[in-house]
Amino acid sequence: MVWVYLQFGGGLETLFDSVKSHKVEIPSKKKEGLSDRTTVKGVINYIQKKMLKKNPEMFLKGKELRPGILVLINDIDWELGGKEECIVENNDVVLFLSTLHGG
Amino acid sequence: MEGAWRGGGLDKEEVERYARQLVLPSFGVANQRKLKESSVLVVGAGGLGSPVCLYLAAAGVGRIGVVDHDHVEKSNLHRQVLHAEDQVGTHKAVSASISMHRLNSTTTVETHVDGFRPKAALKLVEGYDVVVDASDNPATRYCVNDACVIANRPLVSGAAIGTDGQLSVYNHGEGGPCYRCVWPDPPASGSCQRCSDHGVLGVLPGIIGTLQALETIKVITGIGECTSGKLLMFDGLCTGFRTLKLRGRQASCAACGPEATITRDTIAAYDYEAKCGGPMHDRGEGACLKVLGKDRRVSCSRLSERMEEAVGRGGDRDFVLMDVRPRPEFDFAHLPGSVSLPMEDLEEAASGGEGAGLGAYVDNGKDVLVVCRRGNDSQVAVRRLEEAGVANAFDVEGGLQSWSQTVDPTFPLY
Ligand SMILES: [Zn+2]
Question: Where is this cross-link: Glycyl lysine isopeptide (Gly-Lys) (interchain with K-? in acceptor proteins) (chain A) (predicted)?
Fold first, then answer.
């Protein structure tokens, strides 16, 4: 099991009862000699199965994350760390962010 | 006389005016001169553009261009502090120029009253050193970005809605990404919140716009470190700032990549409204949805008649008046005797979820007249009620906006 903080911003929180931060426990496969870990893909999968109640099309496109949503692991763009293959470990913060437009 | 003084190129008036920042070791006269010699284009004279214009004019930027297409409305005043009560109805760019001139008559202000359009985008952006995106819709944001990339201008971008804000400097510095590198795809249209629908706490764009003015001054003078390759997030409810590290320039980017498809030759004809998330403005739209046929719709004047008839019967209404707007809107103004059932709750009640279902709202046999702000949601609601077995539901055409315009002008128009 991996404990992670899932956060949603830029309006995405409205898909999750308008709560911006959630602490969740995500099942993971135990590997010899390694700490418990999952990937961003595993996190998205968990959100799809356990958290996303309504308007899944605002968050997903098929099984993948909807284009236009930025993912940051511990405040660093997932593009800098392998996108959906980014490793997520205990106490990591995974932020899903949409761009704001109002002015 | 021979005793005249020497300085860094500013006259007595200027030295006295800008003295408090001239004495700053990290700023000084050389940087003040850079501001004086610089020009900035501010796209949008609204909530963000207000502090941007005011602080840049006050700071002594030599030439400021303001782009807008709208006129000042009463509902702008709580956040768009460039504009005052006596400027309601004035074009925003003109109003902005009046306010800036009042503040600093030595700054040259240029007004661009037709808004930011793809056709004129490049020419507009090329006329200035730095561009500030203070617009209010995704299509304009993509268009401003693309023009900045093509013209090689730094872009100071800010956004604010509700109680949240974002800030970044794009297309600037070694390998700094452009807006499209970070956000290659526009957000889902339903998740794209507009100030006109979703609301914004007035001070929020004030905070983000003020930071945009700071970043602009840093881009012009080169002092400090810009928010380039970074995104600053502000959460107004917990007063929290957070700096996120962004990717660098992307080879796959349609604007700044080696195989860019949006270029000097194509930008003017690029269909931003179709490809980048909707109209290039955030005006409160009138009823535009047509879900229902004529037999399912009643006019505001007919609703008014039925209300009057009921008063004649001693208040006994032969219909239910259902208001499907979000609760905060119902709380500040609603029609007498209307019941509040926001769209979300309606959806839940209609799908037979927990709660009492629709029974608590629908009085057996009576017509259900559904009203919302502009007459769009109410049509969707009527369709939903029909599906849930309520046969005699009707849409009040044009919503409360039309009510205010055609029946009761004392009802707030917002
Ligand atoms: Zn780019």
Answer: 103
